[in-house]
């Protein structure tokens, strides 16, 4: 687990936006996915166990960094049968590869508080390039005095390219799910304070 006292907060003068180290709040964040089922409906799910760090540079947002780790065994589609298949050897194989990780390698300003994040997704022993389109939310201070930031992001991966098979099996027969998997991020993160990093 990431520990706040192990991180040094970075500040650069008077930034235009949030600056410093932020730890993702898993209670107020979501990592979900959807995959086409039988070319008609979508199978939706989420991961319930994850953690991550944002290193934000408010004056130069394109120099910020994102690091994320997801426990593949925490897949939840609302269907035990689909969960078993999705975490099994034909898909995520969580017994062999318990973690899926992402680290950013570059951020490009796309205008209107939007950014395109290039990075490396490590899944099932492979590290592959992906792009996440991010829309930055507002920063705020909550009732406990914690400084928070939020953003939403989306990316599309193809199961066959990642060795994931065709995605979770249908609950009741029919055609298999599609190859295109859309991942969605709804992230809320809290800033690490100097006193906590000492």
From TrEMBL:
Pfam families, alphabetized: YceI
Stretch forming the signal peptide: none
Domain of life: Bacteria
Domain Lipid/polyisoprenoid-binding YceI-like: 21-190
Gene3D superfamilies given in the database record: Lipid/polyisoprenoid-binding, YceI-like
Annotated region (Disordered), positions in chain: 70-91
Skewed-composition ranges (Polar residues): 70-81
Similarity-based family: Belongs to the UPF0312 family.
UniProt protein name: YceI family protein
């Amino acid at each position: 687990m990431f520990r706040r006292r192990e991180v040094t907060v970075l500040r650069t003068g008077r930034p235009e936006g949030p600056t410093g180290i932020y730890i993702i709040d898993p209670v107020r964040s979501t990592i979900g996915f959807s995959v086409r089922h039988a070319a008609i409906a979508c199978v939706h799910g989420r991961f319930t166990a994850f953690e991550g760090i944002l290193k934000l540079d408010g004056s130069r947002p394109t120099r910020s960094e994102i690091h994320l780790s997801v426990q593949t065994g925490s897949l939840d589609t609302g269907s035990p049968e689909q969960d078993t298949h999705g975490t099994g050897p034909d898909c995520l194989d969580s017994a062999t590869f318990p973690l899926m990780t992402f680290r950013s390698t570059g951020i490009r300003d796309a205008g209107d508080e939007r950014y395109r994040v290039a990075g490396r997704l490590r899944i099932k022993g492979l590290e592959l390039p992906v792009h996440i389109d991010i829309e930055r939310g507002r920063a705020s201070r909550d009732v406990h005095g914690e400084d928070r930031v939020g953003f939403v992001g989306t990316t599309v991966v193809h199961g066959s390219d990642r060795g994931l098979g065709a995605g979770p099996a249908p609950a009741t027969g029919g055609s298999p799910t599609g190859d295109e998997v859309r991942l969605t991020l709804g992230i809320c993160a809290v800033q690490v304070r100097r006193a906590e990093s000492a």
